[in-house]
Specification:
By secondary structure, the protein is mostly helical. The protein has one domain. The chain contains 2 helices and no strands. α1 packs antiparallel against α2. The mean pLDDT is about 75. InterPro entries: DUF2909. This is Twin transmembrane helix small protein. Keywords: Membrane, Transmembrane, Transmembrane helix. Pfam families: DUF2909.
Length: about 60
Amino acid sequence: MIFKFIIVVMLLAVVISLFWSFWHLIRHPQPGNKVLKGLALRVLLSAITLLLIFLYLGYQTGHHW
């Protein structure tokens, strides 16, 4: 229970930091940043997908946190 809570908190921290850097890229674009924007978007989407998978697996095994 505590271990899963720590995992969720770490995942949330990763998602928040990725979102913050992505938001910073959008708000302060430098020339030639389109590749970085695409990469940041891909990383953000994969992090959200990982979080959803963890939540789904926790729900399937009957551990509700």
